[in-house]
Every structure is written in structure tokens, then in C-alpha cells.
Fold these 4 entries.
Entry 1:
Amino acid sequence: MLLLAVDTATPAVTVALHDGDSVIAEAGQVDARRHGELLLPTVDRVLARAGLKLDAVTGVVVGVGPGPYTGLRVGLATAETFGLVLGVPVHGLCTLDGLAYAAGLTGPFAVATDARRKEVYWARYDDARTRVSEPAVDRPADIAEQLAGLPVVGSGALLYPEAFGDARGPEHQSAGALASLAAEKLAAGEPFLPPLPLYLRRPDAQVPKNYKVVTPQ
Amino acid sequence: MADEPLVLGIETSCDETGVGVVRGTTLLADAIASSVDEHARFGGVVPEVASRAHLEAMVPTIERALKQAGVAASDLDGIAVTAGPGLAGALLVGVSAAKAYAYALGKPLYGVNHLASHICVDQLEHGPLPEPTMALLVSGGHSSLLLAPDITNDVRPMGATIDDAAGEAFDKIARVLDLGFPGGPVIDRLAREGDPKAIAFPRGLTGPRDAAYDFSFSGLKTSVARWIEAKRSAGEEVPVRDVAASFQEAVVDVLTRKAVRACKDEGVDHLMIGGGVAANSRLRALAQERCERAGIRLRVPRPGLCTDNGAMVAALGAEMVARGRAASDWDLSADSSLPVTEPHVPGTGHGHTHDHDHVHEMSKDNLYS
Ligand SMILES: [Zn+2]
């Protein structure tokens, strides 16, 4: 088994290879503005470092968000297209589940990532592998009370220490954690999410004034 | 193979998810999924709605195109994709998918210019482009006059709109007349039953001291809207067909006049017209009339190839392969304002960067050591 995991739902562009036992290569970069440029070279680098070619991959794992839209789609478009060409399954996982897995906590906690617009994407967990709420998007102040006393993991927590008293790392998503979680779920025969984006927000239905600026200067 | 490259092209710059397959200058498949209906109630293209639709349609549209073409992905000689200009988020879906597709297949990737693709698509209809070709591109997003001595590496802007695109003017007037979105087809239809000389609407930028090849449709749009409002406030019925015909005449008069003038000035004996507005029947007729009078050969692809599609991207990609142009790097980015002077985005060969990895595994055959 060789899983290729990618996640672009957060500012991190993260890629990992997992052979069923462990992560054999991982690379990534935190740069919220360059997901489109960075992902493919990162995939290429991870494969090169493992001494493998893409056609050795037996399954693709992709973080489906929630995440700010533009970057999120880079990972999904890439994962789905790999799946098409390779003829292998594409397994969707909630991005927050990767952070929860990486946190490795054994008691109740929450994960929060930056949703921009002064909001966070978040969900509650009973332990590192067990999510107990649907991912949601809210203002930190509006959920501070219900998460009071709980550790809150991720950049969304660290950004708003006034709302989350016990904010903790890991700050950023790791495809290695996502791949490890996927390998466990595959071994246990547990279901995945479809490789479809979790936007959690409706699109801004605004037509910009010059909606397609393509006039040469 | 070299003279007849088999190329798949992906286009996602606006609201059409297009995937085309060509062999040289022969069209094999042109699969399209459009989100235009989802934008209709907003009166224009909503970028986030378009981007979401592209992601949903991407893989199924690739599959459909390959099936239509009756070729195997492994037989492709290259993958082309619109790198820009266009809506940033929309472009990014196509660029991401194209990179993954090319990488997984082990084929070269060509990031190409949307405007150059609009010109090159005519090769699929009328054979190889004459060099140079003068091109008038008119759509909801662009109104440009371009001189193309070599579509793969030399495209020169002659003029462009200084305000609205021609297609936008159609959309806006259609909105004022309550005709819905997009405005082009319905105005074209109504105009056939109207009098193009009924109302003398202004011709923008046609004075002796105005830029010879630039366009302006904003003043026309305002003038038409005022005329309609004046009728309405006087309690008179708006002669919709005459308004449509007179407005359309003002637009196509300026477009064709300037395009023919550019051909004459530059000594170019071919004019191609592309973009969604090239489907307009009056534009085609008037351009034909004026080109014939000036001894210019007019080339206009069928309407389905004038609007945004994947075949045009594949057509330009095939030309890039045929002429041995450099492929793009894996870090190709979507460039919403890619200049028309860059028909493609060649790689530097240094697409891989040494950055802050948290990688601990190093294989022996690391390509980047
Ligand atoms: Zn176009």
C-alpha cells in the first residue's frame, strides 16, 4: 500500500507518502497565497525523496476542508485528477481530523483553524480519533463559552487566545498525520468522506464591477 | 508525430469548464460544462460560483472529452491549460487539474494565454493561421485588436477597450431592457426585426484625434440607457427592436471599422474575429461586407468555437508542441492578468525550489540534490 496525502485547506501546503506502516516522506510549506504554485512541486519532491514514482500510489488521501475556498480547491482538483489518471480511490478526510490526530490528545478537546473574516472553522473531539460534532464556522467569542476549559488545537485557537484559554499546537496541518489517520481507517474498514469541498459558507453573490479584467495594457 | 501533435486543452478562465482534444489543426473533441445559468440571476459572472462549478465539472469534463475524441490519455503529446488572463480562482482550478493530469501522465504541460487561444482556435476551422493575422477579440471579458505574426511567441496589442468590453455593453443594455443575462443572443435576435438606423447612438472613440484602434462602449451604454429612460418617463412605449438594432449597429460599426483600418494600416490581408460576440450575426455580416470591400479575407470560426472552450486551448497547445516551444514548469501559476504579449508561460527549468521542508527522508536518487 502506498498512500499519497495532500491538504491545501489551510495556509499549509502539505504532502506525505505513507506505506501502510508509517509516513515515508513528507514535505510542506506554509504560504497561504501560493497553494497553486507549491503543491505539484511538493508532490514531486516527496516522491523523489522516497525514490518512488506517482504510479506506485495505490490511494490518494485529501483534506476536504473546511477551508478558505481558493486554496482548498487546489488540493481537491489535484487529488481527483490523480485519482482519475491512476485509477485509484480518492479518500476524503475532514482537515480538522488531521490536526486532531496530530494533537494526540486522549481526552475531550476542540480543533480550530483560521477561517479569515474573524471566524474559525472548528469541531469537537472526544479523543484524537473521535470527532463528535460537525465542522462549523463561527466567531471565536460565540463559541468561547461552550469550549471553556477545553484544550483547543490549531492556528484558529492560537490566533484568538482571548477566546481560547488553552490554545495549543500543532498550529498547522500535516499531511503525514492525515495519511496516518487514513491508513488506520483503511485497516479498520472505516468509511471516508467523498472528495468534495466543505465550504461551510455560501458564495458571496456579488458580481465585481469589471468581472473579467483581461484587457492588455 | 511532431507535425500532428495530440493535445488536450483545459479552459476555466470564466464560467465555462472546457476540455478539448485536437490533433494538429483537427478538432477531435470539445466538451463543455457551463455554469452560466447559475449566474443569470446576478446579471454577471460571480467568481466564487464559477470556481465551485469548475471543480465539480473538471474531472467529468476531461473524461467526456477523451471519450468523444476516442483517444487514450496515454497517447497525448501534451496538456495545455489557460494560465490567464481571467478570474483568478477559476483559472486556478484548471491549472491545478492540468498540472496533476500532465504530471500523472508524464506529459509536458503548456500554460497558454486565453486571448492567443481565441485566435488560434480558427486553425481548427480554416486551417493554419496566415502570418501575420489581425485578430479582433470581442466578448463579455475582452475587446482587443491584436496583431499576431506568430501565435506561439509574437502577439502585439494594437488596441483595446478603455472601459467596458463589448459583450458587457450587450449585457448591460439587455438588463436595462429587462431581457435577462447574457444579453448578446437576445439582442441579436430582436435586432433582426428592428431598424438599425432608427436611433443615432454615438460611436465611441471615432473622432480624428481619438486612438485609432482603442474602443469605448461606456458612453454608448449610458446614451442608450438615457434614451430608454426618457421614453419610459414620457410614458411612451420603448421600441425594443429598434433600440436593440440601433445599439448593436453602433457597437459593430465601430468594431469592424477599426479592425479593417488596422488591417489596411498594417498591410495585413487577413482578419479573424473571435470571442463570444463573434457569434453576433450583424457583426459577422458587416465585417464580411467591409472586408470584401477592402480586399481582406475574413475568418470567423463557428459560434461554438468563438465562445470560451477547451478546444481553443488545445489548438494553441498543439501549435506550441509543433513549433517546439518550451513547456511550463510544475510551479506554473494562474495569472489573472497575464499580458497578451505572452502567448505561453515557458518554464525556466528551475521550477523546483529549496525551501523549508520538514522532510527527513532522503532517497538516494534525489533529483534535487
Ligand atoms: Zn474568452
Note: Chain A has two domains: 3-95+173-188, 104-168.
Entry 2:
Amino acid sequence: MENLVNIFVKSVFIDNMIFAYFLGMCSYLAVSKTVKTSAGLGIAVIFVLGITVPVDYLIENYLLKEGALAWLSPRFADVDLSFLSFIIFIAVIASMVQLVEMVIEKFSPALYNSLGIFLPLIAVNCAILGGSLFMQERAYNNIAEATAFGLGSGVGWFLAIVGIAAIREKIRYSNIPDPLKGLGITFIITGLMGIAFMGFMGIKL
Amino acid sequence: MSAEKEPLFSAKNIKLITDPINSNNPITVQVLGICSALAVTVKLKPAVVMAISVMVVLAVSNIVISLLRNYIPPRIRIIVQLVVIASMVILVDQVLKAFVFDVSKQLSVFVGLIITNCIIMGRLEAFAMGNKPWPSFLDALGNAAGYGIILIIVAFFRELLGSGTIWGLKVIPESVYDFGYENNGLMILPPMALIVVGAIIWIQRARNKKLVESN
């Protein structure tokens, strides 16, 4: 349990998707104009990461990894399909996003209305595929750890986009050199936020 | 072939290459493909490898999609595009693992992330779906070059100031260090990539007033 909390905190603050790896920057820059919409996108990302990372974990460990097919028959024990992982992960993500969209639409129309437009966008958000690829690279021990990592990365992304949106709402009233307006200043603020987040480096529960 | 055949390098086609390098740069103007652009720019070598990989993937998938554009049903075009890109990326990944293994280790997940690189999806969707293979190929080259140039500029400054080397070779002489010069460790950390790109955007927009945003 302690281990899970540790992975969660680590992926929220230290290995933050945006500040440490720049994943999901495209939608981060495009959608962070108001707090409300960015919170919607952030929640959708938490949701999708929390589902796709464990699913991809199962696929990785029971289908793709070297020797993963041994449960089927001992003859497959040395089959290594890991070169297929990119295409399978992206297929899982695209179909999961579609599935999540349909499930939410059926059971919670209110949530669907607030997330609606963001869900399809998420299929091509690098943070989602990045989550699965990092999970593959770091080789978590069991599915609970992978889930903690997925949720933690999502929460970290959520914090980052809500933070930058709040700053951008305020910065509209300040006097910035013309060429820096919009994109330029957003980059620099993100950099400064990243430096601030580096203060969390080394914390361990 | 159409009757009024254009020369291969007509003015319009040249513009397809030169536009994205400066006034319509994919990173600083269209804001595409930033995810992978920043993470690989600590050293020059991975940045160049990354730029070349993106160029190969973008050029080939642009041509393939452009050839298939009349046969792809619009409803499933995203999936088709993803499959084409993903297969190209797998090829590139295997080639990198085979020939430049150390760089491939440094790039780690970012080779895989070329799949979700917005430049590629964006160009396929915006250009290759509606144009012939040759212009699509030029468009791919132009955009990949625009992406590569930013990558190389950022990596050049980060490597020079952060480690005092260029392409792994020491360029700042030992005597400068004796005077008390120190490598700026901050340049190696991820946040500085963002600030360097911010500065590039600042310079570019100061030179080209048309790009300045209003709000």
C-alpha cells in the first residue's frame, strides 16, 4: 500500500507528465485559455489514463512481452511480440476512448455534456500513449502499481493544465511585449512552473 | 496525369517547402508537435536523429495517405491514418534499435510518441487528404524541416550552455573553466527547453510582426 502511494505521489509531482516529459503539450497549450474547459479536459485525461494504463499493462504482460504467451501453451514460451506494442497500444487507446465516450453518454449525460468535445481529442494526446509507454519501460510489478501510475500521471496533468489556465486568465491584464503575447509567454510560464515543480524532486513517502 | 502538368518545382511547390520553415513553422506558429520536440533536445545528436525520424515518418505517411485519399471512407479516416503512422514508426524504431542503439535508448519512449505527434496527424488531415502525392511529399519535407530546425537550434544552445559540448565534442576550452566559468546545469533540466523555445518565438515574432497574437 505504501508503495502504491509512493508511485502515485511520484507520478503526480516528480515525474509530472508536462513539466518533466512535456507530454500532452499540444492540447495543454491549445485548451488552457479558461479554467473551466481545462478542468474538463484534465478530468477526461485522468479518466482515460486510469483505464488505458491498466488495460495496456494486461496486454503487455499476457500478450506482447517475451514469454508472455506461455500461459497459452509452452510452445509459445519464446515468442516476443513486443515490436507490435505501439500499434496495439494506440488501437487500445482509440477504442477505449470510444468506449468510454459511449458509456458516459449512456449513464451520465451531464458528465458527457461537460466532457463531450474533449474525449475524441484525447485519442491523439501524447500523454495517454506516453503513459502506456512509460508503464512498459518501467515494468511495474503488478496491475495495482500500473493503475496508481496511470491515475497519478492523470492527476499531475490535471494540476498542470488547471494551474496554467488560472495564470493565463490573469495574465491577460498585464503588459507583455507584443511578440511574447499568447504562445511565447505561455511557454515561459510553463518553464517557470516546471522549475517550481522541481522543488518536489527527491520527496519519498 | 492532368493535361496542364505543372513543373516539379513550380513556385507553388517551392513555397510548400519554404513556408513551414519560417512564417508557418509547425512548432512556433502552428503549435504542433511540441510534446516530443522539447524532451529530446538536451543533446544535439538525439535531436538530429529525432528530426530525421520525424521527416521519414511524415514523408512516407503523407505519400501513402495521399495515394489512398480517394479510397478512405471519411468516418474511419483517423484510424486509417493512425495505422499508417504506427506501422511507419515501428519500422523507424526497429531501424534505430539496429543501427544507433545508444541514441535509441536516449530517445526511449519518444520514438513511439511520434505516433501521436500532432504534426503528423495535422499534416495528414490538413494536406495529404486533399492533395496529390508530390505536393504532399514536399509539404512533409517542409514541415519536418521546420520542426527539425527548431529542434536543432534548441539542442545547440542547451548542449553548448549546459554541457559545454557540441555533438559530444568539447568546444569551450579548459582555460575558460580555469577563469571560473561553469556549465549552466539549469540548461540540462527540462524547464529550460520551454524557456528557450519561448525566446525563439519572441525573436521570430519580433522580426515578423504579422505573427503577433492579439490578446
Note: The radius of gyration of chain A is 19 Å.
Entry 3:
Amino acid sequence: MKVLVPLKRVADPDNANKVKVPADGSKVDTGSLEWKANPFDEYALETALRLTEDGKAQKKRLGEVVVATFGPKDTETTLRAALATGADRAIRVDVEDEAIDGLLVAKALAKIVEEEKPDLVLLGKQQVDGDTNQVGQLLAELLDWPMATFAGTVQEEDGALLVGREVDGGQLDVRVKLPALVTVDLRVVNPTSVYSKVTDKEKFKYAEGVRFAPLPAIMKARKKPLDVKKLGDLVSDTAQKVKYIRYEAPPQRKAGEKVADVDTLVSKLKNEAKVL
Amino acid sequence: MGNVLVVAEVADGKLRKTTHSAVTFAKEAAAQLGGSYDILVIGAGVDGAAADAAKLGAGKVLVADDASLTNYLAETYAPTVAEIGKGYSVVCGTASPYGKDLLARVAGKLDAGFASDITSLLPQEGGKLTYKRPIYAGNAFVVCQLASDVEIVTVRQSAFDAAAEGGDSPVEKAAVAGASAAKDRIEWVNFNSVKSERPELAEADVVVSGGRALKEQFYEILDPLADVLGAAIGASRAACDAGYCAPDLQVGQTGKIVAPGLYIAIGISGAIQHLAGMKSSKVIVAINKDEEAPIYQITDYGLVADLFKAVPELTEKIKAAKA
Ligand SMILES: Cc1cc2nc3c(=O)[nH]c(=O)nc-3n(C[C@H](O)[C@H](O)[C@H](O)COP(=O)(O)OP(=O)(O)OC[C@H]3O[C@@H](n4cnc5c(N)ncnc54)[C@H](O)[C@@H]3O)c2cc1C
Ligand SMILES: Nc1ncnc2c1ncn2[C@@H]1O[C@H](COP(=O)(O)O)[C@@H](O)[C@H]1O
């Protein structure tokens, strides 16, 4: 199986409360934050790796995983990390972060899909900085492919995937025939969430979370192929349909009081907050 | 002038309350555009839902009812929504898993700009609808506009009050569009429902939420408290991931966004991603044995205690206080 995984880098999500919006609202200043891979995209990569291996013999790759990002030169760090983790090749589409929106990314990805002909495109369900949650759906529609968004489980079958989608009120199982598109949710990296056809799901359990690159792999990743493309070579019209006009800081909430015991809490809730 | 189409959400043949928030947005947007709003009810056997929708003050309710739409799949619904939607200035829904899945696909079909999970509609700027939406887990907002003939919008349910009932809109049949090629390559297999008798998380006045600390006793500890408060139960990601509770209880940036009158966080540390889903609640209470837990930075009342002792005591004392 050949899998394409679009990866985005984001400002360290665990410190997102440190982003600043200047008074003129011209931008969100993430200056003090490190770049990290979008966690959902790391989960998508982990899913792609699980689907292209026998869990018991992970060194032997049974398929191809291509990662792609849209961003300036320094996003190549994110791609190299993905290559070290196990991806085979990388593509960077050279563009400034502010020059793209979800639809443009989806259109350019559609072109990459046309060129690469993957059996599966695996994405995160959302980037955790823009929080838009749309690229996967847009891309599936542009390709006229079946999609399974918010996947918590993925099981490979012959020429198809059985996907458990996390939706309101429970889990919805759908079967998509390849080529198809899947966006992943958090639980997809649980130990028994994803199995390729060759992994024995009765006997094998993954470690919780995503795998880490061993040191030699980090060295080897420097030699793996990384192609650079221009956005204009992939899409003819590079105008954005979503215009960001200005930014605002959120209202602040201030810490209240600590109460001494349960009795005080109940009395405050009843008499002060009046919520009982 | 321009009109707005609300894509209703139906579950078990009934209109979901998510729809009511989208209607409130549609009302505001239609007023700004000098037009009106219609509601599209799509599915199979949705007469009941259409009758509910007719009480929400729309110009009309369109009903696309067909056996081919029996179980929701974006692949089968999107062509019809797009076909009907392209006659409108704005097509909107709520940013529930359904709305996120379907409306983004509709945006792709219509080559349209998509503003997802908006928290308010601002006054028009430059003669265009202007939206505000949170980014960076709610640590910033962006004001944006869309540049396409049809604008696709999903609204955050907790940020738009549910539209009140009143009125009796005419109900019309709408044609079902031919399906796309994608449809032949997807099969609806099964829905494992985890229905509970409690209020829906996004609609409840009180939410009692539990974290990793509750372990296997998640429901044993929380159920009695939720019972006395008539509350919905929520959870942190860690509690969901560990399987202590159902995944759709997850409150947070990447789960459900709630803003109840009272939110009680129990054994939850207060990670950024969790706060993003509940910090608009009116009154926030936390019970955590670590007095340094970040959750206390946003609580109105914090009780530093062992939850396994404090929660049963709280349950009994609230019961007494309410009696
Ligand atoms: C991409 C991504 C998306 C995420 N999205 C979400 C999201 O939407 N929602 C979400 O919640 N999280 C989300 N997270 C996870 C988040 O970062 C935290 O890991 C998670 O919220 C922690 O859950 P917790 O507070 O239950 O667990 P912990 O952080 O382990 O906290 C447990 C708390 O319980 C307290 N405790 C322990 N024992 C007791 C006791 N006996 N009595 C009282 N207190 C006790 C401890 O002091 C501690 O503060 C996301 C993470 C990532 C990477
Ligand atoms: N700039 C980008 N580069 C690579 N992948 C992206 C980019 N933007 C979005 N994606 C992919 O689309 C997914 C959903 O993002 P979004 O719809 O923007 O929230 C992400 O998890 C990525 O897999």
C-alpha cells in the first residue's frame, strides 16, 4: 500500500496560551514558541506506518509512505523528523504560511495525489493552531473519493479499510474501498486501534502512542529524498477564499478562590453563585 | 440581498438541538443580508424532523427524503446539499461531527470558502459578512471573510443560543441529486451507539467532568453527582483514551466545546486543550488534590481535596441543600 500523509508544523500546542496578539491585531505572535509537528499529523503518520508493516517485524517496510508539507524552508525539519520515524520520501511545497488556506492546500494536494497515485491519503482531523478541520473533507471531495473522518480505529482488509469513526453518540463503522481518504482522531494511536492485513490482531498489540525515531534513523533520514515544489506548479489560481482580516486576544478569566471544605463549596454555590 | 440555508441535523428521526444554534446564526446573517433563511432537512423518514424544523421561523423548510439517504454518509448527502445550497449566499450548520464532516465536503463541491466553528457574526465590514472564530485553542481569535459566491459556515453550538420555537413554516419537497462516484466505494457498516439518559453535553446547564484520576471508578463516582444536579457527564482526553468512559464525552479543543452555567472539573489537571473546551462556562469549580494544578487558574471555586472522599460528600450535601 502506498500512503500519502500531509503534515503541518504548528506552534507548540502545549504552550498555546503564550501566543500574543499585538494591539493592532495584525498577527498572532508565536515568536516564543517552538515549532512542533501537528500532533494529529504525527498520529496519521503512525497510522500509515502501522498499515504498511507487520507489527511483529516493523523494520521490514511493506509499503511506501510519502509525507508532504506546505510551508517555508524551515518546515523541512518537520519532514526530516517524519523521514526518520519511517516515512520513505518527502515533498515540500514552498509557500509562506499566510499565503494558503484549506481549499488551496486541498487543491494542491489533489494534484500531488494525481502525480503520486497513493492508495490512501491519511491526514490529521485538524491542525491545532488554525483549528479549521476541513482539508481532508475538501480533498476527498475534489478527488471524488470516499472518506472516513475522525477515525479512532482502522483495520485493513483486501482492497479496503474498515474504519471506526468517532461521532456524536458512539462509533460509526464504515468500509471504504481504496483509493480512499482517512482523517484520524486521538484514539487512533491506542495499542489495538490500527492493524494492517498482515499483523496478527489477536496476538499483537502496539505500544501506546507514536513511535520515536532511533538515532541511526535520524542520520539515515538526511539522505532520504525530499522534493521541493512550487504552489504555482500545482494550482493555477492561488487566490485564497478565506481572508483573515485581523486577530483579537481572547477575554481573560481570572482565578477565583480556594474553598476550605465541601460545606463551604456548597454554600458558595448556593448563596453566592446561585447555581444550585 | 441574499438568503441563508441551514442544514439541519437529524438523529433517530428527530431534529437535533445542534440545528437550533445554526438557526440563530442564520437569522442574524439573513437580517444583515436583507434576506430570509430556509432549513434543509435531509435523510430518510424525516417528516417528524421537518415538522420540528417548521417551528423555527424559516421562510420554508425543504425536505430531501429518500431511501438512498437512510444512513448518513457525506458521500450521499453532499451532492444534494450542494445542489440546493448553490442558490443561497450562505450555507450553514453546526460544528458537530456531522456538520464538520458534511459541510466541508459541500464547500469542496461548490469551490467555496469555509469558515468553521465560528463564535460570532460581527457587523458587516465592506459590505461583507464578517465572522469571528477561535484559533490556537481559543488563545486568539481571527476575524475573517470569505471570497466565494456561496459562503459555507459552521457555528459553535455553545456560542449561539438555541433558536426559540414559534411560527409555522411551509414545508416543501426538495429533489435528491444524483450521487457521486465516491458513494459506490463506501459502505455504512454499523453504528455502535453509547446512548445515555443524561442531557446532551453541549446543551446541559450543568456539566460534571472527570479526568484520569477517576480510573475505573469514573461512573461510580460521577453518576450520583450528575444525578443530583441533572447534569451531563464530560471527560478529559486522558479519561477517554484510557477507556474509563466513551470518547464522545471528551471536552476540549478537539472534543466537545461546552459553556454551561456550572462546570465541575474533577481530577482534571487543566491542560490547555481541555480549557479550550470549557473556559466559557459561567461558573467553574475544580476538585483536585494538587493545589498547583493549572485548572485553578480559571476556576471560580477550587477545592483542594482527594476526589474519592470529596465527591461523595459533595453529592450528599448538594442533595441536602436542594431538599
Ligand atoms: C492533539 C491533542 C489534542 C488534545 N485534545 C484534548 C481535548 O480536547 N480535551 C482534553 O481534555 N485533553 C486534550 N488533550 C490532552 C491534554 O493535553 C491533557 O493530556 C489531558 O487533558 C489530561 O487529562 P487529565 O487532566 O484527566 O489527566 P492528568 O493531566 O493526568 O491530570 C490528572 C489530575 O488529577 C489529579 N488527581 C489525581 N488523583 C487525584 C485524587 N485522588 N483526587 C483529586 N485529584 C486527583 C492530579 O493532581 C492531576 O491534576 C489533547 C492533547 C493533544 C496532544
Ligand atoms: N500547510 C499544511 N501542510 C501540510 N498539511 C496540511 C497543511 N494544512 C493542513 N494540512 C493537513 O490537513 C489536516 C487538517 O487540517 P485543517 O483542515 O487545516 O485543520 C492536517 O492535519 C494536515 O494533515
Note: The mean pLDDT of chain A is 97.
Entry 4:
Amino acid sequence: MFDRLGEMLSLEFMRRAFLGGILVGASCAFLSVFVVLRRLAFVSQGVSHAAFGGVALAVLVGINPSLGALVFSVGTALAIGGVSRRRSWVEDSSIGIFLAVSMALGLLFLGLKRGSATGLYGYLFGSILSILPSDLPWMIGLTCLVFLVLLVFMKELYFYVFDETMARVAGVPVDALYFGLLILLAVTISLGMKLVGAILVTALLVIPGATARFLTSNIVVLIPLSIAIGVLGVILGLTLAYLVNVSPGASIVVVLFLGFLGAFLASGQRS
Amino acid sequence: MSAAASKPVIDVQHLSFRRDGRIVLHDVSFQIQEHELVGLIGPNGGGKTSLLQTLLGVLHPYEGTIHVLGREPAHLDKARGQIGYVAQTKQFDRDFPARAKDVVLMGTFPQVGFAKLPGSKEKASVFGALEQVGMQDRASRPIGRLSGGEQQRVFIAQALVSHPRLLILDEPTAGVDREGEESLIRLLTRLKAQSDLTILMVSHNVSLIRSHTDRIVALNRELIFAGPASGLTDAVIAEVYHPHPAEAPGV
């Protein structure tokens, strides 16, 4: 067992996967606190599926798939936000529409692509091998951006997710914060997609925050706890994926879910 | 200086407001002077919340003018901190990770400003505000674990923490039991007596409003009554709560 762990850490692609995974896990888990409190889980699902359309388009035109995912995710997030702000009752409908349209476009672009597109499987379900040395600089940059924005505007975001009306009356620019959150969501989705895939990246954006909420009602503890859960889930999930030779996305999500289940049961016993 | 000669805290002139093409308020004019406790009454859909949100600059008038503390609501800017607002009973998540003191600290936003952290001065004023409403002992309790009346006190402390000149409350006694209701009104009366606060409060409880406020403004899409509480007769109340002509069958 220890031999295999030593062997795992001696492999450069695994060390890269761990570094990338920790960055992805930390930024998604930080954001997940606000995703859970503002109930944006379905929005993140819609945006992550939209990223698939962007990947397929990028493959078709021959550009970096991560860039395609980023552009499509941000565009879809802004479209969902724009429609929802005009008519609040259409938020979930607009997510359903954009989710389906983006997936349909993805399939359409793949149909137009001559030859195989096997690399796309990794974007759908994640792959340990998918994180390349050239990915790390922009992953570090985007993680720093997510942390910086969330830390600088923490007070405003906290007020906004607690009570949007009161925040607006107090002069908090709630519309800008809403769109800012959606853009951060899109950025973290494009960040996490390579590791866990478009289908499963929502788990990283929901489970850590939801798990931490079962364990504390103090916001000062909630955020670091959520980040710790996200990072630990990624480390254990990646290790499991290597040892059992399964998809990293699936193993990370299963590990995070077990943590969620444990926290849920523990909180039930406490109450 | 007489109240009439001083500059009004709220000055509404010929205000009309429409929502989705429907008239919500029509040609409403009234003034509220400094240091008054004013009750705002009217039926559901009578335009009370729309009026408050127009005063706060969240909604914009279709016609007419509004001045709050001498400024148009859209241009309150730094004066925003001089207005405390307590919204209608909130349907917030009872498990939301916020303690009473966290909720009150949110109210310091107009003083602290955008993208800055509250300092020791703001944190001290949080405990001062909680003390004003008698909630200092529950400062570290999660907001969702407090009773309805206690939660309302915390929200009033949130509105008071910026030391406002004007306090606007939208149905602060809704969802609060009778004892809590009396206690909240006593609190507001005491706050008014202890400071230069002007208070505008919406309530459905007409007898409570009649017995505890200085003046009353009654709305049913248009202004029905504005005057001393003693002038609110049963006939006026019947007129206020009578279906508006636009709501009458066949219209």
C-alpha cells in the first residue's frame, strides 16, 4: 500500500494532478459557500453543461478546449443572469433552456468535426492525465483571482446572500455582485472541468459548502472548513482513483459525498 | 422652532407609481416632520410597500417628487446611512450561518463602504445597537434560533447601528405574538424619546397604530387620510379598507 502511494507521488503527472486538484478544490469549495447560501446549485449545473458546448466548438475550430469552455461558461452564466434579472420566475426555466441548447450545440459541433474526438471524454468525466504542465500557470492565476475577489468582497457577498433587499437598500451593488458570482462560477467550472469533467464539476461547487453547513453555523469557520473539505476530498479522491484505476471525477465526487453523508448524520444526532 | 416651520424629513408631492401598467399609487402627497412617530396603514395591495421602496430609492416614481432628508432617494449616497430600514418579516433560511451580531454588523455597510472591512468602531457600535434593543445577551446566538420578536429586535438593531435620523419599518409586528408586538411598540416609543429619531412604521394593527403613534398616513392606492392619530375615525378606517374603485366588481 505504502509502496503504491510512494510510486504515485514519484509520477510527475500525478504530482501535477494533485497540485491542479488542490487549486481546483480550494477555489470551488470557497465559492461553494456562496453557491449553497444563494442557492445557485442549479445555475452551476447549467453553466457546467454549457462548458461542454464550448469544448466541442473549440475542438471543431482547433483552439484550446479550456478557452472554449471558459468563453461558453461565462457567456451562458451571463445569459442566465440577464434573463433571470428581467423576470425572476424564469431563472430555473432559463437554466434548463441554456443547459439543453449548449449540450445540443456541443453534439452538433462534434457531428461537424471529421475524425474522432476521443479527448472529449476527459472533458465530460475528468482525467488525471489531462492536466498538462502548460495548464498550471493559468490554473494558479485563476485560483488567485477567485480567492482575491471573494476575499475583497466577502462582506458585500455575505450581506447579499443573507438578504438581497436589505443589501440593496443599504447601497450594496447587488446586481453587480450577482453577475460577479456567476462569472466566478463560470471561471471555476472551466478550471475544474479538466480534472472532474463537465458533468461532475457541480459536485465540487456544492458538496463542500453544503457539508460544512452541517458542521458549523459560524461564517468565520464555515469558509475555511469548506475549503478544507474540498481540498481533502480532491486529495483522497485522486489517491483512490490512482489506486483503483477509476475516473478521478467519479472517485472525488464519491469521497465528497461520503463526507456529506457523515456530516448530515452527525448533525442529525446533534440536533 | 415649530414642526411646521422645520424642514420635513419626508416630503412626498403628487407621487404616482405604476407597476406593469397598473396604478399602484396615485397623486399621493404628505409630509413627515422631524421626531414624529408616524403609522402607515392600508389594505394589502394598497401601495404601502411600494411607497416605502420608493422612499428608499429601490423603486422610482412615475410622477411627482420625493425628498427624504432633503434629497431625492436616488441620490441619497452617503445620506443612505441616515436611514434605517426594517423590511417585512423575512422568510430567511433558519440555518443561515449568521449570529445576531453578524446581522447587525451588516447594517454598518453605509459607514464602512465598499470592499472595506469594518473596524473596531463599527464592531463596538454593534453591541451598542444590540443593547438599545435589549438583545446584548443574545449577540452570539444564531439568528435562526431566536424567536420572531427577538429576530425583529435584531433587525431593528441592524437598522439602528448606523445611527440613522429616520427609521422605516415595514410591518415589524407581523408574525410576532401579542406580547412581542406590545414590547416592540414600547421599544420604538422609547427609541424615539431617547433620540432625535423620526419613525415611519407600516402596520395592519390599526388599534396599535392609533394608540401609539403621533400621526397616521392611510393609503388605498391614493391618500385617504394624513393627520393626527386622534383624527382616524371609524368612518375613515372603513374608507381606507373599502375596496378601491379599480378593484370593484365589473371594473
Note: Residues 34 and 161 of chain A are 7 Å apart (CA to CA).
